[in-house]
Amino acid sequence: MTDLGHVLVLAGGLSHEREVSLRSGHRVCDALREAGVDAQSVDADSALIPGIIADPPSAVFPAIHGVSGEDGAVREVLALLDVPFVGATAGACRFAFDKQAAKTLISAGGLTTPEAITLPRETFHDLGAAAVLDRIVARLGLPLFVKPVRGGSALGAGPVRTGEELPAAMVSCFAYGDTALIERCIPGTEIAVSVIDLGDGPQALPAVEIVPDGGTYDYAARYTAGRTEFYTPARIPPAAAKAAADTAVTAHTTLGLRDLSRTDLIVDDAGTVFFLEVNVAPGMTETSTLPMALEAAGFGFGAVCRDLLVLAARRGS
Ligand SMILES: Nc1ncnc2c1ncn2[C@@H]1O[C@H](COP(=O)(O)OP(=O)(O)OP(=O)(O)O)[C@@H](O)[C@H]1O
Ligand SMILES: [Mg+2]
Question: What proportions of the chain, in percent to the nearest 5, are helix, strand and coil?
Fold first, then answer.
């Protein structure tokens, strides 16, 4: 065991991504134990606060995805309990988790993100869905991509090829969130660029190219082994790889993130890199891209998780 003392891996939560989070948490916990850390996986439920007060951990590794894990709520509570944790502060998470807020900050920082319109469910209800949707198609053109502004794992997200498909896509989206982000669909190569900061500044890991079997990187394509092919490093021109790495580091710093993040990007045929979103609690499952990128860069997964916890414990918040 290291002199880190005992640490907690937070996994589960009550979002739609609970199952994915449990898988991420188990993987992080197992890897930490192999790296000699006294780690225990705990859920974010009513036992969490009494448990932390009774036996304060040296640091916490949050692996909860979706609402509460990534919107900053659980981290606000950890800060309230004076428990150091790995990753972005609650304040930074709030902007990163809201895709539209992140896109606004990112484009103000000079990066490219698909043109989009973000509207809550009530607007369609109050003003008449058909009229609003018609204007959106007229403004953005087709194809489009619709997703909840605060979501994850591609739940409620999908492409829209014709105007007739848009109402159904909106209904699917609103099943997972109250506000929809309707974005220009960008054809091209999907990549994920993870960033880690082991104390000497944020560093982009090799881009992981994502090629789903059926063409869409949906929930099943994400978490079913063999449903998606990954290429690390991504098969993109060196200039695009450099631009993607710079975009991920700029996204990380512009949004004030810490320790680790994963930026999802599309590179179009002209080599333009489009920012889709940044994740503050990236997936850590067997089919997740951050662990793949770490391995490709020669890092040990457990050692990195341990080092991030050590840094968090030293930082003390
Ligand atoms: N504008 C777009 N054009 C083309 N494809 C898109 C676009 N936006 C999203 N996608 C596709 O939808 C998927 C999910 O979108 P995105 O990564 O923005 O949201 P998410 O559901 O929060 O994902 P995550 O699980 O990574 O948190 C992407 O991985 C990509 O395949
Ligand atoms: Mg994504």
Answer: 40, 20, 40
* Residue nearest ligand 1's atom 26 by CA: 153
* Each residue's pLDDT tens digit, 195-231: 999 999 999 999 999 999 989 999 999 999 999 999 9
Whether the CB-CB separation of 251 and 106 falls below 8 Å is answered with yes
User: With contact defined as beta carbons under 8 Å apart, do 181 and 99 qualify?
Assistant: yes
Euclidean distance between CA atoms 18 and 24, whole angstroms: 10
pLDDT score of 67: 86
Near ion ligand 2, which residues have CB within 5 Å? 264
Helix (H, G, I), strand (E, B) or coil at 26: helix
Are 201 and 313 spatial neighbours (Cβ–Cβ below 8 Å)? no
Q: Is this model's pTM higher than 0.90 or not?
A: yes
- Residue 157 DSSP SS3: coil
Give the residues surrounding ligand 1 with Cβ less than 6 Å away. Answer: 114, 145, 147, 151-154, 157, 183-186, 190, 217, 264, 266, 276-277, 279
* Residue linked to tokens 């188990």: 26
Q: Are 70 and 97 in contact (CB under 8 A)?
A: yes
CA 61 to centroid of chain Cα atoms: 15
Q: What are the DSSP E strand ranges found in the chain?
A: 6-10, 38-42, 59-62, 116-120, 144-148, 158-160, 179-184, 189-196, 203-204, 208-212, 228-231, 260-267, 273-279
